[in-house]
Design a protein that fits this description.
Blueprint (H helix, E strand, L loop, with lengths): L1 E11 L2 E11 L14 H6 L7 E2 L10 E3 L2 E13 L7 E6 L8 E4 L3 E8 L8 E3 L21 E7 L5 E6 L6 H7 L3 E6 L1 H5 L10 E9 L8 H4 L9 E4 L2 E2 L1 E6 L2 E8 L6 E5 L5 E6 L2 E9 L2 E3 L4 E7 L7 E6 L2 E9 L18 H5 L2 E8 L6 E2 L11 E3 L4 E8 L9 E5 L5 E5 L14 E4 L4 E7 L4 E7 L2 H5 L3 E6 L1
Parallel strand pairs: 3-16, 5-8, 7-12, 13-17, 16-24, 25-28, 27-34
Antiparallel strand pairs: 1-2, 4-5, 5-6, 8-10, 9-11, 11-12, 13-14, 14-15, 17-22, 18-21, 18-23, 19-20, 19-22, 23-24, 25-26, 28-32, 29-31, 29-33, 30-32, 33-34
Bound molecules: copper (II) ion.
Family: Belongs to the multicopper oxidase family.
Organism: Caryophanon tenue
Pfam families: Cu-oxidase, Cu-oxidase_2, Cu-oxidase_3
Length: 482
């Protein structure tokens, strides 16, 4: 048994407070918090979902043009209006709509052109989280600013395996507010293998996107400045795909849930009623080798997972997706389809001895809980290049979440422009949840994680904490890939 400081930041309604306590716990591997250790405080922040609104699914973005392998899209960041609270019009942001954005569905090998328009009153960027593209304006980091009224066009060739990625703004110091107001969308990559696999793939029928977010409404408004908390802006209200108090209906078959933690700061501890087992089939960057049966899954801010859950035995019943013990999403099961047998073998990821025994060449410490959020003891400087790495080379990075005088909390560590493999967690094999390609890992206090990182493209990329409040105050560094 190892002693770990368990410290979580919570905000309940508008009040925020720190909770410090020390607990005996075994080491949490692969982001799996043991029951009752890291999340009890965060859970307090979320009200149970009453399931009063039908869940909707974002539209699939239609291309502006498509010719053979070349496809062209247009995305506009704009202001909008929604009704979340009865009788109140809420000012929002959205992509090509009032709130959130459409699903952009690309295929491996496609030559893609996207016209990016900013119709907001403030500067923004369009970042493709998890997409392996050049680290220039294409990646959409804080350097790739698009001013109000401007349109910029990016082009790239999709060169990565099938995965559930996402897009969101990344302007320096403004990311948290813009995402909170509604700028986020899903980006699916399909490839020949994913199209051939036997898996639920009917969008909105048995293959459901779930964008998990939390908000605190102030007089019915999404007022980021009023609720912002540098430690972590945690809401009291769950919102899925932009729907407050959602409930969904599914047939009595195996359904696929593509889950994005699109929250600013919240970590979700996902499970189903009565600990119904489910299969993890994909992580951030693609399919896992073999479907992994589990009953709980931890998803920090920015992380994704694809799971398949079998609803065959629940006709006429309500199965609930939970966050710890709090209802997140009721699923009403109808008897309209039959459960099929699906593939359970997907990928051929090899974590060989070469990777396991390679020396660590880059180390990143993460620290901070209340005020000073630091990577390697520093805050972001756009004129400082923190690391350099050669295009195509694999290097072992060691990410450590250290405890300092402020305390400590879990930090989701994200690197742009790469899908990496977790080599070890505190010297041991990662759990199933971290055995696929990842671009974001939620590292617990005192945890040390080694990852094998390779950048297929060149440019300057960000690496940062994906708690957006921490990112905005500079818990971010830059790597130049040459
Ligand atoms: Cu952080």
């Amino acid at each position: 048994m190892k002693k770990v400081w368990t410290v979580a930041a919570m905000s309940l309604l508008l009040a925020a407070c720190n909770v410090d306590e020390e607990q005996e716990t075994s080491t949490a591997h692969g982001g799996h918090a043991q029951h009752g250790t890291y999340y009890h405080n965060e859970q307090l922040a979320l009200l149970p979902n009453e399931g009063t609104q039908p869940l909707t699914f974002p539209p699939l973005l239609a291309p502006v043009s498509e010719q053979g392998n070349e496809v062209e899209y247009a995305l506009t960041a704009q202001q909008g209006k929604m009704t979340f609270v009865d009788g109140v019009e809420t000012a929002t942001y959205g992509y090509n709509g009032e709130f959130l954005g459409p699903v952009l569905r690309l295929k491996d090998g496609q030559q893609v052109t996207i016209h990016l328009t900013n119709e907001l009153d403030e500067a923004t960027t369009f970042h493709w989280h998890g997409l392996e593209v050049a680290g220039d304006a294409t990646d959409g980091g804080p350097h790739a600013v698009i001013e109000p009224g401007e349109t910029q066009t990016i082009t790239f060739t999709v060169d990565q395996q099938a995965a559930t990625l996402w897009y969101h703004p990344h302007p320096m110091g403004k990311t948290a507010a813009q995402v909170y107001k509604g700028l986020a969308g899903l980006l699916y990559i399909d490839d020949a293998k994913s199209e051939a696999l036997q898996l639920p793939h009917d969008y909105g029928i048995n293959d459901f996107p779930l964008v998990l977010q939390d908000r605190t409404f102030v007089d019915g408004q999404i007022d980021y400045e009023a609720v912002a908390n540098t430690m972590s802006t945690l809401g009291d209200t769950i919102m899925i795909n932009g729907v407050v108090n959602p409930a969904m209906t599914a047939a009595n078959e195996k359904v696929r849930l593509r889950i994005l933690n699109g929250s600013n700061a919240m970590t979700y501890y996902l499970r189903f009623t009565d600990d119904l087992p489910f299969s993890l089939i994909a992580t951030d960057g693609g399919f896992v080798n073999e479907a992994a049966t589990m009953t709980t899954l931890t998803l920090g801010a920015g992380e994704r997972a694809e799971i398949v859950v079998d609803l065959h035995d629940f006709v006429g019943q309500r199965v609930e997706l939970l966050n710890g013990d709090t209802p997140l999403l009721p699923i009403d099961v109808t008897a309209t389809r039959q459960a099929m047998d699906y593939d359970t073998t997907f990928n051929e990821i090899v974590l060989d001895d070469t990777l396991r025994t390679m020396e660590v060449t880059k180390t990143v410490t993460m620290e901070g809980m209340t005020e000073n959020f630091l990577l390697n003891g520093k805050t972001f400087d756009h004129e400082r290049i923190d690391f350099r790495q050669k295009q195509g080379d694999t290097e072992i990075w060691e990410i450590e979440n250290i405890i300092n005088e402020e305390g400590a909390m879990a930090h989701p560590f994200h690197i742009h422009g790469t899908q990496f493999l977790v080599v070890s967690v505190d010297g041991e094999e990662p759990d199933a949840a971290w055995q696929g390609y990842k671009d974001t890992i939620t590292v617990q206090p005192n945890q040390k994680v080694r990852i094998a990182v390779r950048f297929p493209e060149k440019g300057i990329y960000m690496f940062h904490c994906h708690i957006l409040e921490h990112e905005d105050v500079g818990m971010m560094g830059q790597i130049e890939v040459y």
